[in-house]
């Protein structure tokens, strides 16, 4: 009699969490890179898109290195104070690693880095909970961009639609989203169907460090703020 598949042994081993060794590896990588590259930048990001960021990182991999992850781990790597910083002045960089931020270490000229970061942006569909950048309203009448098969789906998203001779039709004006308000799941789906991209993935430089100087880019900050943070 064939052996039942139910009798096969199943491994119940748990996936190991990233622990001390993983953190130490990141710290060592950052410290090695800090010795290798001539400049270190802190940058912040909004509407992160992993695929787009990977493409941007690939463009610069021959001259630069990016680090994203735990701000606390990156701070430890650089040094949190003048007494434990790995190079003179890096504790100022460490103090600016807050929120959605990362490190960019490079041998590229400062002007080239500034130009790349200032120009880089990519548009994508906004996610649920994102803030609408504008009001979107559909007016009563035919919606010829949608096929008749989509009419039940549109109704499930709260749109007042019907089929009129095989054409999807709005029976009254419909507000998809309001400027400045968070997107509901239904709003996000409708905007995607409409092809409207409201999210801008963008990187912002916060500061630059080199052995010779330290420069702040973010408005409203000065070196006294960094020292007192």
Automatic annotation (TrEMBL):
Subcellular location: Cytoplasm; Nucleus, Nucleolus
GO cellular component, one term: cytoplasm
Annotated signal peptide: none
Main location: cytoplasm
Xref: InterPro entries: Mrt4, Ribosomal_uL10, Ribosomal_uL10-like_insert, Ribosomal_uL10-like_insert_sf, Ribosomal_uL10-like_sf, Ribosome_Assembly_uL10
SUPFAM superfamilies hit by this protein: Ribosomal protein L10-like
Keywords from the UniProt entry: Cytoplasm, Nucleus, Ribosome biogenesis
GO molecular function: RNA binding
Domain Large ribosomal subunit protein uL10-like insertion: 126-195
Matches recorded under CDD domains: Ribosomal_P0_like
Any GO BP annotation: ribosomal large subunit assembly
Region (Disordered): 1-24
UniProt superkingdom: Eukaryota
Function: Component of the ribosome assembly machinery. Nuclear paralog of the ribosomal protein P0, it binds pre-60S subunits at an early stage of assembly in the nucleolus, and is replaced by P0 in cytoplasmic pre-60S subunits and mature 80S ribosomes.
Protein family: Belongs to the universal ribosomal protein uL10 family.
Assembly, per entry: Associates with the pre-60S ribosomal particle.
Protein name in UniProt: Ribosome assembly factor mrt4
Organism of derivation: Acer yangbiense
């Amino acid at each position: 009699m064939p052996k039942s598949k139910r009798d096969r042994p199943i491994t119940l081993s748990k996936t190991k969490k990233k622990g001390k060794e993983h953190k130490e590896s990141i710290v060592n990588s950052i410290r090695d890179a800090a010795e290798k590259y001539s400049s270190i930048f802190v940058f912040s990001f909004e509407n992160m898109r992993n695929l787009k960021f990977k493409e941007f990182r690939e463009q610069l991999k021959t001259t630069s290195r990016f680090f994203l992850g735990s701000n606390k781990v990156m701070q430890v790597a650089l040094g949190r104070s003048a007494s434990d910083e790995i190079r003179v002045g890096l504790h100022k960089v460490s103090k600016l690693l807050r929120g959605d931020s990362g490190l960019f270490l490079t041998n590229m000229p400062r002007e080239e880095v500034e130009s790349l970061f200032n120009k880089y942006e990519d548009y994508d569909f906004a996610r649920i909970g994102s803030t609408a950048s504008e009001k979107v309203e559909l007016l009563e009448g035919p919606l010829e961009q949608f096929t008749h098969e989509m009419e039940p789906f549109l109704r499930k998203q709260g749109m007042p639609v019907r089929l009129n001779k095989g054409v999807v039709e709005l029976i009254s004006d419909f507000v998809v989203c309001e400027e400045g308000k968070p997107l509901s799941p239904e709003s996000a789906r409708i905007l995607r169907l409409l092809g409207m991209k409201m999210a801008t993935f963008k990187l912002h430089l916060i500061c630059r460090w080199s052995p010779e100087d330290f420069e702040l880019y973010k408005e409203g900050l000065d070196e006294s703020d960094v020292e007192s943070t």
